[in-house]
Amino acid sequence: MAVDIQYSLSREDWSLHRKGYLDQQRHQEKVREAIKKNLPQIITEESIIMGKGKKVVRVPIRSLAEYHFRFNYNQGRNIGQGSGGTQKGTVIGREAPEGAGKGPGAGDQPGVDYYEAEVTLEEVQEMLFQDLELPNLQEKKKPVLASPTYEFRDVRRKGLMGNLDKKRTLLENLKRNAMKGKLCIGGITPEDLRFKTWEEKMRYETSAVVLAMMDTSGSMGTYEKYIARTFFFWMVRFLRSKYQQVEIVFIAHHTQAREVTEAEFFAKGESGGTRCSSAYQLALEIIDKRYPPADYNIYPFHFTDGDNLPSDNEACLEAVRLLLPKINLLGYGEIVNPYYRTSTLMNVLKRIKDERLVTVAIKDKSEVYQALRQFFAGARGRESGGTRI
Amino acid sequence: MEQEFKALAKAIEAIHNQARKFGLDFFPMRFELCPADVIYAFGAYGMPTRFTHWTFGKHFYKMKLQYDFNLSRIYELVINSDPCYAFLLEGNELIQNKLVIAHVFAHSDFFKNNIHFAPTSRQMVETMAVHAAKIREYEFKYGHREVEIFLDAALSIQEHIEPPTIFPVAEEEGEKEKGPSRPRETPYDDLWALDGKPKEQPRERTRKIPPRPTKDMLAFIMNNSPELEDWQRDILAIVREEMRYFWPQMETKIINEGWATYWHARIMRELDLTEEETIEFAHLHASVTQPGKMHINPYYVGSKIFEDIEKRWDSPSQEDRERYGRQGGEGRAKIFEVRTCENDISFLRNYLTRELVEELDLFLYQKVGAEWVVVENDWEKVRDGLVGRLTNCGFPYIVVEDGDYQRRGELYLKHCYEDLELDVPYLEKTLPYIYLLWGRPVHLETVIDGKTAVFSYDGKKNSRR
Questions:
Q1: Of the candidates A215, A310, B240, B281, which lies 20 to 30 Å from B143 by C-alpha distance?
Q2: Alpha-carbon span A332 to A246, nearest angstrom
Q3: Using CB atoms, which residue from A12, A69, A76 is nearest to B32?
């Protein structure tokens, strides 16, 4: 006789239930896709460039919202509940100021939606730098600095407990048990233990120096400086994350050029006229004194609005002609004012026909990304990366 | 672990017996003890067996994050099915799970007896498993990306269906209209002509599609889109069927949670709890029924209304006795009647009284500048405001006006505007999805700033006139 049982309690093995995680992973993938698509905008986000040392940034990712027809919540009336005798006119909440960190609990406010995704600087960096490189990097004859690295490439039966290879150990145990007819993990004995061991390898690198030159004259407005700094911000990060042996020299100039520290370089605001040749001259001096071209790969990058003293243009041309044989690549970035264009340094430099001179015009924030690709993506990237002027 | 399991089994038995004593009438109950991430997965998908899509992953992540940070705990997860499945969180304290169990028995009673659930399938667990298998098969056949893109589009209009109804006539109305207007043709028709009367010309039928505006956009597109392949129609049918299953849950949120909260409190009071458990229970119950500020707490408001109804029918006022002939002592019977007949809208309309609005301190608030300000506390306006918010489960009411707009096969939708504008950026992102489903330009008529506006998407860009 079956008894009519009205209730039951059970517990199953849910360890294989991965659906939530798999779909979460797909969502994560989509976040990354969206970030990649928006890289040109994201890398110029103030929160990244200005957020000193902040590791996590919130970037707007529009494509991840689930679009459907919905009401404009900022308009309608919502129902709320007080703790007694709430009167008309009482303020019960304020919109969070923009940029304020919102915890995961922000969803209870009407109209607040998850437009933004959190990404770490490392993630953005990784995607941005994925296929960037120093172009035309050559082996130089100066005895290169070698640095040892360690790689785990072997598994042995003896070793340090700290290097225990848990996965292999469990597999061994499973194998041993299985041979005895038991299909389980357990009873680990010393003979199951497996250890990882390392090999020492030497990494050889050729040496390189980057000369970062920025125009800090009066004609460089907030916008122009922001663009130049954004470029150099990513350039410095890129060099530091990808290369161990690269040195960076910072040069700021108006009518005169000066070698400055990194902190000064990024904080500098000056005024006065512009004499770009001064920067090129200083670069030449520094190269001659400290970085013989035979021993170094040399990369000068110069950012300016191009508003140079007309009388100085010929001097620039001369200096650049002197520079080119010594270097691998000279990057010239001109921040174009969309409203007026006088004859700029760019027009003058265009007279030089040399593979090693790469000039880029930047018309708005999002083109910083193009500039990075133009300079650093190598031949492959330059083909695909926008216009080369 | 074994200990925990045994204690739970005992608790279920005791709670079951008590629930029966109170007259709750539920489906056979299947409790499952699960780890947190499994429960959160079920919560995100709405059903353990549902198909996979990245949007569920997004919700799962959000829910799990809140759990990991201890910001929220799911108190219940129960499925409208026969037998009724309920999931208990492994590692919850016994008293927490006892509360959940009592709560869940009441939900099951609600699912089984509330009239709005009558048209729902009680085999949806199995049905959704079949759906998921089909979608997996389509992914295999037509490509994961292809199916995902299509699902994105289908889900963007999932709320635009005709809700399942307890009055099945309404649905067939459209069908009838086609049929009988034309007289039947028979072999003897020419006989009528012998009378010399000119034969009535069959009316030039300008068949409109749809014959009258339909709310069921999903069904309309599924049946009429020239663009779709069979597997795509099938996905639309799946999305629609699942939405129709979830719909009654969305329109009974307050009353259903209120009912479950009312009963878990009553049942727990009857159990043999230790002193410690009693205190812990009081603490838990208080946190479940904590009033919200920017929104109302359905557990709290719902259970308060039930308690109020019971009180008013148990000891009616002089006026109630004279006008409505209430005898008194009918409280229990009355709340069981209410749980059978009402959904959120009728529940609030009929039983949210002035006294309750004032006692619960409900109000309407609105955004003024950067602030949210209380703009109304007159009880009738508050009640009507709440009811207005819940209409159509809070989704805009949009109908398909014309499936052959300007004779070009374009789709013309109309938002039935009632004082609340649509979110324009969202609207402009949704139209391309519908374009993908319909294959021809799509238009939506709505009202912006007091004026009629038509938004269109032609496959390349949005426009507005």
A1: B240
A2: 20
A3: A12
Cα-Cα-Cα-Cα dihedral of B125, B131, B134, B136, to 10°? -80
Per-residue pLDDT of chain B (465 residues; tens, 9 = 90+): 688 889 999 999 999 999 999 999 999 999 999 888 888 888 889 888 999 999 998 888 878 877 777 666 656 789 999 999 999 988 888 899 999 999 999 999 999 999 999 999 999 999 999 999 999 999 999 999 999 999 999 999 999 999 887 775 544 444 444 444 455 667 777 776 666 665 555 555 567 888 999 999 999 999 999 989 999 999 999 999 999 999 999 999 999 999 999 999 999 999 989 999 999 999 989 988 888 788 889 999 999 999 999 999 999 999 889 888 888 899 999 999 999 999 999 999 999 999 999 999 999 998 888 888 999 989 999 999 999 999 999 999 999 999 999 889 999 999 999 889 999 989 999 999 999 999 999 999 999 999 999 999 999 999 998
| CB pair distance less than 8 Å for A68 and B364 | no
ipTM (interface pTM): 0.88
Interior angle at CA B292, CA B290 and CA B298, nearest 5: 75
Nearest to B292 among A25, A75, A81 (CB): A81
Structure tokens at A361: 């015009």
| Chain B nearest-CA residue for A30 | B54
The torsion defined by the Cα of A239, A241, A243 and A244, in degrees rounded to 10, comes to 120
- Cβ–Cβ gap B389/A79 under 8 Å: yes
How far apart are alpha carbons A358 and A301 in whole angstroms?
Answer: 10
Q: Which residues of A touch B28 (CB under 8 A)?
A: 5-7
Give, in order, the Cα–Cα distances in Å from B314 to each of A227, B18, B301, B360.
75, 22, 20, 21
Work out the number of other CB atoms within 10 angstroms of the CB of residue B87: 22
Query: Do residues B47 and B125 lie in contact, with contact meaning Cβ atoms separated by under 8 Å?
Result: yes
| Residues in CB range of B152: below 8 A, 6 or more apart | B433
The secondary structure of residue B32, as a DSSP letter, is: E
Contact B359, B311 (CB under 8 A): no
CB contact under 8 A, B372 and A94: yes
Contact B44, A20 (CB under 8 A): yes
Residue B24: φ, ψ to 5°: -70, 140
Dig out the tokens for B323 from the structure: 């006008």
A66 touching B (Cβ < 8 Å): yes
- The dihedral built from the CA positions of residue A23, A24, A29 and A34, taken in this order, carries a sign that is positive
Contact A93 B33 (CB under 8 A): no
User: Which residue type sits at B91?
Assistant: G
Sketch the domain layout of chain B as residue ranges.
2-114+252-288, 298-392, 396-464
CB contacts under 8 A, B 271-290 vs A, are none
Per CB-CB distance under 8 Å, the chain B contacts of A67 are 156, 426, 429-430, 433
Q: Is A229 helix (H, G, I), strand (E, B) or coil?
A: helix
Query: Closest by alpha carbon to B153, among B428, B423, B434?
Result: B434
- The whole-angstrom distance between B50's CA and the closest CA on chain A is 10
Q: Do B366 and A104 touch (CB under 8 A)?
A: no
Q: What is the CA radius of gyration of chain A?
A: 30
List the single residue in A with minimal CA-CA distance to B63: A104
Query: Chain B residues with CB inside 8 Å of A6's CB?
Result: 16, 26, 28-29
Interface test with A, best of B61, B109, B436 (most A CBs within 10 A): B61
- Check CB contact under 8 Å for B377 and A86: yes
User: Which 110-139 residues of chain B touch chain A by CB within 8 A?
Assistant: none
Nearest in space to B217 (alpha carbons), one of B230, B234, B236: B236
